[in-house]
Design brief:
51% of the residues lie in helices and 11% in strands. It is α/β, with parallel strands linked by helices. It binds Fe4 H S5 (Q46) and zinc ion (2 copies).
């Protein structure tokens, strides 16, 4: 049996750092880094996620996935000729948010990436923990709603072509599989590598669509990327999500490459899932103009409940001030 000392890169003969089972390759540090960078470039090209002259808004929390996504997107942008602008939302979750914000600020500064930081408490008068306390709703549902809203306002205001997210293969495939089991087929259409902009909602792209969690962790480590190790204190996996993830990983062990094949098959069939929509076309929120299924959007409803008035329009003005001070308004 080979010891780890004897294992050599299949491409250059240097000591290997990892095995890419589905590609039947052992790779050294240099070739592993190149392998992942090529995979992301191919993803951007294959699914037409970004192109020359475009403006991409990258949502960055400071965790390893979003930091790696931003770094890889930034590298690709120089080759492909698009512009990356980072967005960080400070949710006010004590020390976790403080460290996350500092990490993102330093990282963007070191790479010369323009960064927009929005502070939730400054925008609406409440931090996420304060909202959770007042509203008695699951933290992640409040947080998700707020982040989606703010990302979209910023993307609209800076005329971004898309919002880039750090979701990877091991986030997306279990979620897609779970939605398939539950036959929430339309939901699957939102989980592919790209959702198009429509009805005032700026589209999403997922540059790490074909990169696994393990590959991201190794890439971040080997590239010395700074990221926040701590998880958000509200994070927690549901039992079914965890089990579906383990199931897909055990399948991958038996059939290397099946997760990527699954991801590509879903991407090919996104239009099929999209055609299953039963929702009505979106209207505009009467308060803030954001796309909404109701007369008032969920952000305005939420702020109305907690602050006594819908804050969407006010928040948009505050965001415009932030963007203007950064020279990002056209
Ligand atoms: S930040 Fe927000 Fe996550 Fe924290 S409160 Fe939940 S959704 S876990 S990506
Ligand atoms: Zn090598
Ligand atoms: Zn609104």
């Amino acid at each position: 049996m080979k010891t780890s000392k004897e294992i050599r890169c299949s491409l250059c003969g240097e000591p290997a750092v990892t095995r890419i089972t589905y590609a039947k390759l052992w790779l050294c540090k240099k070739h592993f880094i190149e392998f992942i960078e090529k995979r992301v470039l191919e993803t951007l090209n294959r699914y037409k996620l970004a192109g020359r002259g475009q403006r991409i808004l990258a949502a960055v929390s400071g965790g390893k996935d979003s930091i790696t996504m931003l770094y890889l997107l930034h590298k690709a942008s120089m080759e492909m000729g698009f512009k990356v602008i980072a967005l960080h939302i400070d949710l006010g979750i004590g020390i976790y948010s403080k460290i996350s914000r500092e990490t993102v600020e330093h990282f963007c500064q070191s790479l010369g990436i323009p960064l927009i930081t929005l502070d939730l408490k400054t925008l609406i008068g409440y931090s996420l923990p304060e909202l959770v306390h007042k509203m008695r709703r699951p933290p992640c549902s409040i947080c998700g709603l707020i982040k989606r809203y703010l990302m979209n306002v910023v993307a609209q205001e800076i005329k971004a072509d898309a919002v880039a997210l750090g979701h990877h293969l091991d986030d997306l495939m279990p979620y897609i599989f779970k939605n398939f089991i539950l036959q929430n087929l339309f939901e699957i259409s939102k989980l592919g590598p790209k959702t198009e902009s429509e009805n005032g909602l700026v589209g999403r792209i997922r540059p790490l669509y074909e990169v696994s969690e393990h590959e991201i962790a190794l890439y971040a480590k080997l590239s010395n990327l700074p990221f926040v190790y701590e998880e958000c204190p509200y994070a927690g996996k549901k039992k079914l999500d965890k089990q579906v993830k383990e199931f897909l990983n055990s399948l991958e062990g038996l059939h290397p490459g099946i997760k990527i094949s699954f991801a590509r098959a879903v991407a090919r069939n996104i239009h099929v899932y999209k055609a299953l929509s039963t929702t009505k076309p979106l209207k505009k929120c009467t308060v803030c103009g954001a796309p909404s299924s109701d007369d008032m959007c969920s952000f305005c409803k939420l702020t109305n409940r907690v602050a006594g008035k819908p804050l969407g329009a006010e928040v948009r003005l505050k965001i415009r001030d932030v963007l203007s001070s950064l020279g990002l308004l056209e």
